[in-house]
Amino acid sequence: MWELARDSGVLEPNSSYAYLMFAKFFAETCVLAVENGKPVGFVTGFIPPKAPQTLFVWQIGVSATHRGQGIAKEMLRRLLQRQGQHKVCFLEATVSMSNGASQALFTSMAKEWGTSCTVAECFSADVFPEEAHEAEWTYRVGPIPIQSKGGYA
């Protein structure tokens, strides 16, 4: 996951330790897409303790050669199918205004599920210690309709 993030050219890579921690301690809320034994995409996420019905997506990465093939959307679908027993019915992520791909992904998921996607500022630009860091906006999709078989619509 760290290599995919580092090599993406678009993601803000976290430390390698952070990805190892996600893989070990949050494996239930992470997905790795593999093709021919090689990772081509990942989603890292967690369920916030104060919001047990929400899956918060920390990061989504897809290799440059595999973008535009629906891999991110499929990883989110599979990840949510795993969360059925936890009664997760909201999907959240923070997205910067320059990240059109993530904006399109979350609004498209809302449309696919026939639900809403609300957007609200989460972190203003002035709270980041780095200069020129964009504000991060919370994209909240849901409620996500859960089918009776435990899967998501």
From TrEMBL:
Pfam families the record matches: Acetyltransf_1
E.C. designation(s): 2.3.1.178
Domain N-acetyltransferase: start-end pairs: 1-147
Superkingdom, taxonomy of origin: Bacteria
InterPro entries: Acyl_CoA_acyltransferase, Ectoine_EctA, GNAT_dom
PROSITE patterns the record matches: GNAT
Acyltransferase found in the keyword field: yes
Pathway: Amine and polyamine biosynthesis; ectoine biosynthesis; L-ectoine from L-aspartate 4-semialdehyde: step 2/3
First-tier enzyme category under EC: transferase
UniProt keyword annotations, A-Z: Acyltransferase, Transferase
GO molecular function: diaminobutyrate acetyltransferase activity
Family from the record: Belongs to the acetyltransferase family. EctA subfamily.
Name of the protein: L-2,4-diaminobutyric acid acetyltransferase
Species: Brevibacillus choshinensis
Gene that this sequence comes from: ectA
